[in-house]
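>> received
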Amino acid sequence: MLLNLIRKLAAASLLVFIASATASAQTLVFTAIPDEDETKLVERFKGIADYLSGELDVDVRYIPVKSYAAAISAFRNNQVQLAWFGGLSGVQARELVPGSEAIAQGVEDTAFYSHIIAHKSTGLDEMENLSDELRDKTFTFGSKGSTSGRLIPEYYIREAFGESPEDVFARVGFSGNHTRTLRLVEAGTYDVGAINFSVWDKEMENNNIDTDAVKVIWTTPSYPNYQWTIRGDVNERFGEGFSQRVQEALLAMDDPALLESFPRSGFIPVSNDAYDPIRVVGKQIGIID
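>> returned
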């Protein structure tokens, strides 16, 4: 009987050890909308993964995705627990996962804006309002799910012309991301395109824009954009208060190299309510049901 008791205790201890090891081996997985070339994103978010792992004392891994829809799907299916979303994709993801929260946004994301850029061959110059000079030009948005590369520019195009982009322009395309939009307009493949100011400014600083070929001709009013969104069930998985710890780690990020890679000057607290204007616009133009 003593031997059986010893065996039972040993088995119980083994189960406790396995459970403990499993808990400690939990990995926080995050992703980001593919708004730039994948190589740039992998470099940026590898640094973020290392930073968060050190701050949170858990394994943290970044996984790239091929589309905005894939980022939302990964969040919905709990393949990732944290994501760097744009305004629109964040609203869409949070509606699919009850209890999920926007927890941090870039300082610059409180008043984000988009540029309309044009190839030199169009002869278009900077304009105060979107004008009929744009009619019958070819136009490219970024991703279909992009706030700054599609949602907001489309809203102002519809407001200015009272028509859909397909009725205003000779041809409408979707490049997939902001960097590609820039290259397509710069090359003259499209006459005009929509790009967010952050990508434009960063490419300008890195001397990656042929300013003899492409220029900014119009800029939108400001709107709330990118944010970190976390699933509502992370505390159950990683322990009480984990969501707050993630938020605190993001807000405390002050490594100039990490911040410059976004580029952002820092991160500040935010809540879901800040993105109500994005939801309203999305519903108005039929992107959100």
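>> Residues 23-110+224-285 form a domain with the D-Maltodextrin-Binding Protein; domain 2 fold (CATH 3.40.190.10).
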